[in-house]
Amino acid sequence: MWIIIALILFYLLTPVLLIYLCKISNTLKRIGAVVLAYAVGLVAGNIGIFPTPSEGLLKLLGGTRSFLPKDEFMQFMGSPGFMDTDFTYNMIAQLQDSIMNYTILIALPLLLFSLNLKKWLRNARSTILSLIIAMFSLLASIFIGYYLFAHNITDASKVTGMLIGVYTGGTPNLAAIGTALHVNPDIFILTHTYDLIIGSVALLFLMTVAQRLFNTFLPKYGLIRKGENIMRVEMEEDENSHIENYDGLYKRKNLPEVFKSLFVSIIIFAIGGGLSLFVPKSDQVVVVILTITTLGLLASLFKPLNKLKLSFPLGMYFIIVFCLALSSMANLRSMFQIEFLELFLYVFLVVFGSMFIHVSLARLFKIDTDTTIITITALTYSPPFVPAVAGALKNKEIIIGGLAVGILGYAFGTYLGIFIGSIL
User: pLDDT tens digit string along 286-340?
Assistant: First the structure.
């Protein structure tokens, strides 16, 4: 029990320390609390503090689960492959998974309350165009990779379908397509593992140097508007400079506003969770995300909620907790164990090849840097990662567009992946 309490305190209090360090250090402030949380989590998860699972437990997890449910784990305890450390590992993994799920679902409404939905709708053209470019870039890199590597990859057509799914809606789409196409478990695990390895590197790139690099040849966010709109967008950017200003959360006089924001967010989360119980398990994630996003956006139209200025920094606090828990689950050792080179190269080409094509076309169509990055994030990693990357970019105005892109990816990614995986 003390392990669980210690971990909960670690995940809840470390972000507070990181926020404070960013406040007193200009160097750390430029890096941002979100990126620092990823770094701290990676270190904590890979220096031997957490136990490692046995081969038997790894086999049961199958690369798609982080822990075993209680009943299944009790059965595993009686098997020859069970080790004493498996109990602690499974308990910690279950806690990490719960923290990730709850924090992101509570954070989403908080981040949406203070956003201006009407303003985004007036300027949604670039987001829609970026989505179209992203889909074209993904399919182009997929087919190039298929042509280059298919002859050396088992079930290449099914792998192609899964890659389309995972890079339009994340792991839920990957799992759905893998099941629909009856993919061999070993191929599924390898594909998912390589996606996690390469995806982690790409996510780190998007959150750190991508904005500065892309700004050298793409328009900066907001500067492609005309006339009077330029002044308005620049004012928004000034507002975004306070995206990581958490000072108000520590003032006693602001506690009523903080609790009000949190209370409404929990209600929205409860509604989303309740509705998900009425749909098949495979669709629950999509239903929860859709419900929470929709209710959060509707709440932003209600002035008393839209004026809750502390809701956004409170939501960003939960995002930092999410990032810390997520990165602490990553296994850096697996990144250096590449056994099937062609499959690894195929996934690598799809991730970075589609990114290269997307950025090239964004320059042609004058899509700004932040919209380009958030579109790539939403499709490659799914909606929960949108606020984290927006926080790293210090631009909250792109969150609505990113969530919209991610939800559309959830919606049609599975169908597209199954269709292409079946016809190749």
Answer: 788 778 888 988 888 888 888 888 888 898 899 889 888 888 887 766 655 556 7
Find out whether 104 and 319 touch, Cβ atoms under 8 Å.
Answer: yes
**Cα–Cα nearest to 191, from 34, 343, 387:** 343
The one-letter amino acid code at 196 reads: L
Give pTM, 2 decimals.
0.74
The residues, any chain, with a CB within 8 Å of residue 16's CB and separated by 6 or more, are 317
Nearest to 312 by CA among 320, 49, 149: 320
**Per-residue tokens: 294:** 């929709």
Q: Which residues of 122-154 are buried (b: 16+ CB within 10 A; e: fewer)?
A: ebeebbebbbebbbebbebbbebbbeebbeebe
Q: Which domain covers residue 402, as residue numbers? A: 2-423
Domains in the chain: how many in total?
1
Answer positive or negative: Cα dihedral of 30, 117, 409, 361.
negative
Each residue of 107-162: pLDDT tens digit?
Answer: 888 888 877 777 767 667 888 899 999 999 999 999 999 999 988 888 889 899 98
